[in-house]
Amino acid sequence: MTDDNRVVERAGWAPVRHFAERSVLGLIAVIVIGLGFATLLLLVRFHWTPLQSLDHAVADGLNHQVAGSETRVEILQQISTFGGRGFMIPLVAVVVVALLIRRRPRPALYLVVTGIGAMILDPSLKVLVGRVRPVVESPVAHAPGNSFPSGHALGSMIVYGMLALVLLPAVRPRFRPWFLGFFGLIVALIGFSRIALGVHFLSDVVAGWLLGIAWISVTAYAFRLWRREAGHPAARPAHDGLEPEAGPDLRPAPAERAVLPQPWTQAAEIVVGWVLTFGLLYVLGYTVTRWSPGWDDAVPRWLQEFRSPALDDLSWLWSKAGDTHAILAVSLVFCPLALALWRQWRPVLFLVLAMFGELTLFLTSAAAVDRPRPAAEHLDGPLPTSAFPSGHIAATICLWSAIAIIVMARVHKPWRWLFPALAVLMPLGVAMSRMYRGMHHPTDVLGACLLAAAWLGTLWFVIRPNTHAVTATEAAVENRQLVVV
What we know:
The protein contains 19 helices and no strands. It is mainly α. Mean pLDDT is about 85; it is low at about 5-25. Pfam families: PAP2.
């Protein structure tokens, strides 16, 4: 055998040798992490006194720091929600759908399988160990079920860890440490919030983290074996992500031109449009507050005569469709899916500015006008803002109208007309529900329409959301051409 052949042979075996070395090191790390979790489990299960003393000391100390401040409790509860199933399951679902849109089924399946494993591990171990939650001097939060391990710590470690591994190829190498650090900070804050709120011991959180790391390691290794069987070269998940070649497909908008060609000029135009819209709202609000027509109060009182338990429930549902949580939820689902489909930031920027501008215009004009609620029974009780303009209606108009504008230019199928229909029906339903519940006058609805029309008109002429609009198929073809070049 010649020297050249030996070099080629050694070069051919090098990837296999490197894969084997990394696999052994990874296996050792998983074993160490697993042993750490098993040790904690046994110490908790057999009530080891030093560990119990440490857990109670940390729980009591943090409780003394948190219990006297409602602001601290509120902040910790908000942080804790990012580790709850109500937030993480929709987050993973949106990412899975986006991956399927980008034609990356393998990482999508990885997210599903790994996430299901987390949902099985948490309740199973809690039943097995049966540890009760901490009892502190001044309880500030409550949680059902047993304590060990922390479901928030376990779930956040798995969810944010697997998302980091899947999305890492889309991040430039020099930003990857910051990217991983960001996800690590989220996991750390969630774990700390559970201890500070007094619903978990320190050992519960540490156990959740250890088990989460072990589960991610096992599933990531299984994914690497799957890649090798499919003929792909082995990757190093900690450095390159689960599927390095998916980088071009995972990048949000690799082929997009400049979103705002003259950002400072267009930012100034947006500010001017905001000020003019506020001026129009203030003039209308001042007028209807000082010289309110008689029918303005009569309409909510008339609608009050038709109240019934069934209509009360229906109006509550319609009203909720326009509140902050529903509007934010729809926006957070639509924006990443729109980015996955059309690979453009411009429509996403249009929607984000539409909702941010609507919120600021509503809050400032409501504070400036300070109009009382109608003289009718208020089914929603006292609210912190005044009646003019209706924030529910303005937000609903801005959201569904912006979505309709974006979709109509990019979808050529007959079902696209569903979105203009929603842009009409959703605000009508919310407007009727708000007046039926005694919360708004008809002129408050008029103010909401003025806000939405003026603000969306401003953004339409400045952002031009449908400039270079393409269909999902055209965006995918353009991306493939960019990758080839």
